[in-house]
Structures are given as structure tokens and as C-alpha cells.
From TrEMBL:
Phylogenetic lineage: Eukaryota, Metazoa, Ecdysozoa, Arthropoda, Hexapoda
Protein name (Swiss-Prot/TrEMBL): Uncharacterized protein
Domain of life, per lineage: Eukaryota
Organism: Dendrolimus kikuchii
Length: 299
């Protein structure tokens, strides 16, 4: 078995598949910051933090996870829409309530996800679609393939939480695009190319990358070194993630283990569990503003 890829600042939405002969074929969609910890909770039951809908129905397998969301709000909104495809305004064009379907529950959920990845606001996010179980892997039809800037990958993953970031530091550096001073470290972007000297306001580079009518950049060429830059990678670097947001090991040579940590996921389970499906995601709060923070009408 290949070693898991370790991802910093992980926010993911997953789908479970039930292997219990009595309930085989059932699925469950959820949100997590630690997929390995979460599947253990589902299989152990509600007493261990698992969801009510998966309790005493296992074993479950986490077969696919979509990650790369910028924060818990963005991921939770994606989770809600995936769980409730007939309620979200983003998928009304599919007529899911009216059109009969000749597919399994799992295939339907995959079709819904593939459609979600191709509509706003999710079509502009730097998401990764990761197959965790090769036996369940399916190719996307050509007409429903994710946008080119999204990555389809395979294999296990392990999350690594970032250390708590220090407060914004007041700085006084010149933006090389507008020649004005950058006042805060949280408004400063630099190129991913270590030999590039680009220093810029986040807004200045965003204006350079944005297409008319868009509000979130996807990618663009560095104005100094011409390196192709993904906006999501730039933001992750600004937040303190290592290059490309991926680690192979921690400083002491071992992958981090956050099983004992209390994460946003535990708080999320209490607020957004399957027992509260009518919860209005629009009322979620608590995250700092983000370039990828979905607007309130995105559902």
C-alpha cells in the first residue's frame, strides 16, 4: 500500500459506501478535517463521534473525498448541497425531482458531485477529487469532467493541521505592481518560484488574474517570471502551508497524527449533523474573510 499524501490545512467532503450485506449500497456524505479519524468514528458508532445515520450499519468505506476547500464554511456548504441536491438553487437546471433515474444510489451521488464541480461557486475553487478505494473508482463522462484546474488523484491521504497562525504583522514593503506600500502580512503575496522577486498586494495580483465578470481568480502567469500560478496555491502559501500545500513528513521525520486533537469537525458534527438537515448554512460564521469564501446565496 502506498504511503498517504500529507496535506496541510485540510478541509474535505467525503462519501461513504456501506459494505454491510443488510444495508449494502447505502451511502453517506459528510465533512471532515481528518479523514482517517472520521472513518474510524463512523465504524465505531455514535459513542465514538460517528453520525446517527451510519450507526450500527457498518462496516463503511470512505471511497472518495473532495478536498482543497479554503475553509470550513466553504466545505460545509458543499456538503449540504451534495446531501440536498434537489434543494440547492445551483442544480435546479438538472430537474432532479422530475427526471427518473436508472442508477444506484452511489452512481447518483457521483453524478450529482460531478455536476456540482462544474457550476459556481465550486467550479472556481482549486479542488482535488481523490479516489481512496480503487475498486470504486469510476471515470467521469466527457460531458461531466471537472474543470481543468481541478486535479483527479488516487491513493490515501492524511491531514496535517497548520499551527495556529500568529496575528497579522504590520509591514512596510512596496508592491511591485502598484508601487504602493503593503501594510499587512495578510495582504501580501509572493510568487511560488523561490527565485522570483514578486511582492504584491493580494488585490493587485487578483485584478491581474481575474477575467471580466469573475470574482475569484483561478490561475495566471506571474508578471515577473511568467510561471503559471494557481490562485489556490498562492493563498495556501500566504496562509503558511508549505510549497504546493503538500508535505511528505513532519520536521522530525514522522507524519503528524491529529487523532487526539479537538478539531472543527467535532464542532461541525454537533451543528451540522444529519439530525439537523434543515439547518440554514447561510447562518454559519466564525471564519476570517477569505478570497474563496462563498457568498450567502451560493446554495
Amino acid at each position: 500500500m502506498c504511503e498517504p499524501e500529507i496535506i496541510e490545512d485540510f478541509f474535505g467532503v467525503y462519501i461513504l459506501y456501506c459494505l454491510n450485506p443488510k444495508f449494502k449500497g447505502r451511502t453517506y456524505i459528510g465533512y471532515t478535517r481528518d479523514p482517517n479519524r472520521r472513518i474510524k468514528q463512523h465504524n465505531r458508532g455514535t459513542w465514538a463521534g460517528g453520525a446517527f445515520k451510519t450507526n450500527n450499519k457498518g462496516p463503511w468505506k470512505m471511497v472518495l473525498i473532495v478536498h482543497g476547500f479554503p475553509n470550513n464554511i466553504s466545505a460545509l456548504r458543499f456538503e449540504w448541497a451534495w446531501q440536498n441536491p434537489t434543494k440547492t438553487i445551483r442544480l435546479q437546471h438538472l430537474n432532479l425531482k422530475k427526471l427518473p433515474r436508472k442508477e444506484s444510489e452511489f452512481q447518483f451521488k457521483l453524478r450529482v458531485m460531478s455536476e456540482m464541480l462544474r457550476v459556481g461557486p465550486w467550479c472556481r475553487l482549486p479542488l482535488l477529487i481523490r479516489w481512496l478505494e480503487k475498486d470504486f473508482c469510476e471515470d467521469f463522462p466527457d460531458e461531466r469532467r471537472p474543470p481543468n484546474h481541478m486535479t483527479i488523484c488516487h491513493g490515501p491521504v492524511k491531514s496535517k493541521n497548520l499551527k495556529k497562525s500568529s496575528p497579522a504583522v504590520n509591514i512596510n514593503e512596496e508592491c511591485l505592481l502598484c508601487s504602493k506600500h503593503i501594510q499587512s502580512s495578510q495582504s501580501k503575496l509572493t510568487c511560488l518560484n523561490p527565485s522570483c522577486n514578486l511582492i504584491t498586494h493580494i488585490t493587485c495580483l487578483a485584478d491581474l488574474f481575474l477575467s471580466p465578470g469573475d470574482y475569484v481568480p483561478i490561475e495566471g502567469d506571474c508578471p515577473f517570471c511568467n510561471k503559471k500560478l494557481k490562485w489556490g496555491d498562492l493563498i495556501r502559501k500566504m496562509k503558511g502551508c508549505s510549497q504546493d500545500g503538500v508535505l511528505t513528513q513532519t520536521d522530525d521525520g514522522e507524519a503528524s497524527d491529529s487523532d487526539q486533537e479537538v478539531t472543527d469537525e467535532e464542532l461541525g458534527d454537533k451543528k451540522y449533523s444529519d439530525e439537523n438537515e434543515q439547518f440554514k448554512i447561510k447562518n454559519i460564521g466564525g471564519d476570517e474573510p477569505s478570497w474563496f469564501l462563498d457568498f450567502n446565496d451560493d446554495l
